[in-house]
From TrEMBL:
Cofactor needs: Ni(2+); Fe cation
Keywords for this protein: Iron, Magnesium, Metal-binding, Nickel, Oxidoreductase
Pfam families: Complex1_49kDa, NiFeSe_Hases
Classification of source organism: Bacteria, Pseudomonadati, Thermodesulfobacteriota, Desulfovibrionia, Desulfovibrionales
Listed name of the protein: Nickel-dependent hydrogenase large subunit
SUPFAM superfamilies (alphabetical): HydB/Nqo4-like
Residues where Mg(2+) binds: 48
Keyword Iron attached: yes
Residue span, NADH-quinone oxidoreductase subunit D domain: 121-291, 292-362
Binding site for Fe cation: 70, 359
Binding of Ni(2+), residues: 67, 70, 356
Amino acid sequence: MSTPTTFSMPLGPVHVALEEPVYFHLTVDGETIRKVELTSGHVHRGMEALASQRNLIQNTTLTERVCSLCSNSHSFTYCMAVENVLGIVIPPRARYLRVMAEEIKRVASHLFNTAIQAHIIGYKSLFMHVMEVREMMQDVKETVYGNRMNLASNCIGGVKCDVEARHFDYIQSMLDKVAPAVDEIRDIYDHDPMILGRTRGLGLLPQADAVRLGVVGPVARGSGITHDARKDSPYAAYPELDFRVISRDGCCVNTRALVRLDEIFESIGLIRQCCENSPDGPVTAPMNRIHPAEACARSEAPRGEVFYYIRTNDTDMPARLKWRVPSYMNWEALGVMMRDCTVADVALITNSIDPCVSCTER
């Protein structure tokens, strides 16, 4: 009598190879995955309910704590939603400073995901090297904004603090060091046989499936979809700046990593343009009268499109504040990516969507 080889395998929510608490119910045939069921909700924090108990200004701080790596994107998009609902037009200089902060965060976020991929593969020297390069961007954040993660730069009506000319010079000098280092890292991810053997052709997400599932960010652009909110729905200073939407057609783990590394150079170009072309003038606009209305805003966070909706009443506390994060859509794609891969590939494929449990389970 033959022994069946297909069985169910639980993975998570606490697992040594998974950075955050997610539960995968795997149906495996030997070591090969045939079906994936995802269960989340282990760290729900009720942040949308908390937002209804705080005023509009306090929620700037709250939304920046939805996620660490995308923290600036949340306060950025929230402030835009409030400005839209109140009819506030922010000063030109503030628009440039917002873009600069956002792109600095994007570079650091993409480098972090790239480093974690090397860590999961077991390429420890590459992991430490990428984190060392990322540390230069952390130094930029700490020097210019005083913080290494939450920049606390955005406020309703613009930005909290101006950036001095000497800081622009400092940022430019640090980018001169970061750019060649990232170019070296990109060459490793594009040609190193150890990286390619572990990532090329793994975790395939065909473009048709990417469209059907509505994935966003580098996950979508790694499957050949040229969607980027900075181009498709321009905001802040992006309409006045020159940059490309990066996409590749490989549809695999390696392609998604290369999209992020390519995007770093576009971000560096955007930061340089902000340093050189930021107009003079004020950095905040006054608040307008609060009245019952509703509005929304969207932006392109490092992981993909962030969407905020706000409804106000006659008080300074929102009647409703809701946001949709990129990981919410990208999680579902793991069912396609993991099919016919091995159990040992789960952590690597999961990291390729750059998941964030904290913002998904807000």
